């Protein structure tokens, strides 16, 4: 793996040829990763699948690390927002359902990217940034619940989100158990109950 | 990676030469994994570090997968039990403290084994069995709490243990965040509060 970063692919011309090639290449990276995993990911296979000249792929993305870095950047560069269902438990359950669906799709890009993060420094960095951005976007779930009076204002949003979402990933990725269809709702309910009981209050007064 | 399983190393003579060699070799595997990770793990390096003839290592363990399979077997073959602190929250916090200490040791065999499980089928299988055994042993935490009257008898032990322990692994392994010294206690408290609020009751009557 090279330590020199690949030249950043130009990507500010939506609809242009550059942008079209990037879309084709990153779609091919997703498909190759999902089907073959990190070990099967090569620039030649990506170029062939994308129908893009291999010299273009080598010049713009340089190596597998460059492809992964750009894939994470493109994945995070969307307008995703958590669903607004009208209740804390509903919002957390919707988030867990989305996560479980992404992790159990066949093939699953999400699962392949997590696996790749144990193989490639670029993937580990890209995934860390992506999670960080996603958890930040999810904080609105907590602020909405505070506005509705479901939670006290001093709720630690990050710890509440961690409690609600971690069980599903732990079970699928680390324990490698089959998906439990009831877990998205169940983990959301447990986190919401703990939150109502003051488990995520941050001030010492509320933390007794 | 060979698909043929390695010949099982003979290991029923505690204190004998066979047992001593196994201990030396598995200690060397732990050290090599912790220092160099899966990519640096070779039978030659393990033999050299263990001070055991490489022909012996090749004959008994065959390949890296054989070493990992035996390491997981040896790791699970202990008398580990969760601490009995006298309360549900205390027991869960003690468990989380142990897990966080194991994951943040430098080098950490636990972290190296998790990373290896994304590289080797043998490691993935070994880790799955090890987790399964550990969670089964931890169910006593819940049955003690039921006996003390802290929890209703129909508590889903596995889901409660998952809720209590998942946040720590999620944060360290998947989100790759620095260890949060308050998280072991905090996640234990959140799970215990959710349990008190009926989040892990299994019968429909208690699940309203």
From TrEMBL, chains A, B:
Boundaries of each HTH tetR-type domain copy? 19-79
Name the Gene3D superfamilies for this protein: Homeodomain-like (1.10.10.60), Tetracycline Repressor, domain 2 (1.10.357.10)
Q: Drop me one GO molecular function for this one.
A: DNA-binding transcription factor activity
Name a Pfam family for this protein. Answer: TetR_C_11
The protein's UniProt keywords, in alphabetical order, are: DNA-binding, Transcription, Transcription regulation
Q: Which residues bind DNA?
A: 42-61
Coiled-coil residue spans: none
The source's superkingdom equals Bacteria
What protein name does the entry list? Transcriptional regulator, TetR family
């Amino acid at each position: 793996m090279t330590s020199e970063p690949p030249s950043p692919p130009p990507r500010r011309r939506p609809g242009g040829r550059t942008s079209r090639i990037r879309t084709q290449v990153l779609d091919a990276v997703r498909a190759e990763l999902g089907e073959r995993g990190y070990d099967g990911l090569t620039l030649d296979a990506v170029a062939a699948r994308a129908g893009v000249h291999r010299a273009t792929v080598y010049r713009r993305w340089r190596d597998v690390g460059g492809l992964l870095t750009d894939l994470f950047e493109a994945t995070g560069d969307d307008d995703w927002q958590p669903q607004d269902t009208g209740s804390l438990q509903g919002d957390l359950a919707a988030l867990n359902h989305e996560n479980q669906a992404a992790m159990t799709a066949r093939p699953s890009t999400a699962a392949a990217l997590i696996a790749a993060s144990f193989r490639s420094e670029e993937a580990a960095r890209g995934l860390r940034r992506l999670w960080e951005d996603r958890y930040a976007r999810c904080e609105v779930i907590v602020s909405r619940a505070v506005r509705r009076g479901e939670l006290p204002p001093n709720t630690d949003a990050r710890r509440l989100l961690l409690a609600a979402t971690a069980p599903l990933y732990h079970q699928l990725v680390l324990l490698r158990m089959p998906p439990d269809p009831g877990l998205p709702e169940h983990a959301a309910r447990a986190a919401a109950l703990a939150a109502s009981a003051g488990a995520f209050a941050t001030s010492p007064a509320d933390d007794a």
